[in-house]
Amino acid sequence: MPSIEERDALRMRLLRELYDVTMRGGRLFAYDSWCTEESLDRDEVELASEWLVDRGLARAPVMGPMLQLTPAGQDRVEDEMRGPPGPAAGETSTDLTVGSDQRGSSSNASAAVSWGVAAWRPSS
After folding, report:
1. Residues 75 and 89 in one domain
2. Are the C-beta atoms of 105 and 87 separated by less than 8 Å?
3. pLDDT for 8-30, tens place per residue?
4. Cβ neighbours, 10 Å, residue 83
């Protein structure tokens, strides 16, 4: 049985692959062949796909091993690609280390959680 870290990594890997397929113009991603090409456990990929669907990051519009990226899924991948935000212009930022990785801001901070890693972002 995979660890939670391994499952998280597989979920993100599947979401990134779905994102890449979508950005290349694909409407649906058939992950069966991807499992074979990447030598991945089909049952674990199925669990990862269900997790993505349950959280609104992907849709399963047809029966079978097919996924479609949602706007929330696209946002999640692009947020990961951007990395943690820096301080807004004119603000002072204080880095805090509590548990995983957290960033603090001196004013109006709101919490955002991404894949189990907390990051503080200034509110708009």
Report:
1. no
2. yes
3. 999 999 999 999 999 999 888 88
4. 8
Sheet holding 58-59, edge to edge: 29-30, 66-69, 58-59
**pTM (global) more than 0.70:** no
Question: Do residue 71 and residue 87 come from a single domain?
Answer: no
Structure token digits, residue 66: 């097919």
Angle at 116 between CA 13 and CA 65, to 5 degrees: 35
Nearest to residue 44, comparing CAs of 3, 4, 10?
A: 10
Q: How confident is the model at residue 62 (pLDDT cuts 50, 70, 90)?
A: confident
Q: Is 24 helix (H, G, I), strand (E, B) or coil?
A: coil
Residue 102 is which amino acid?
A: Q
Judge if 27 and 74 occupy the same domain.
yes
CATH number at residue 32: 1.10.10.10
65 and 113 inside one domain:
no
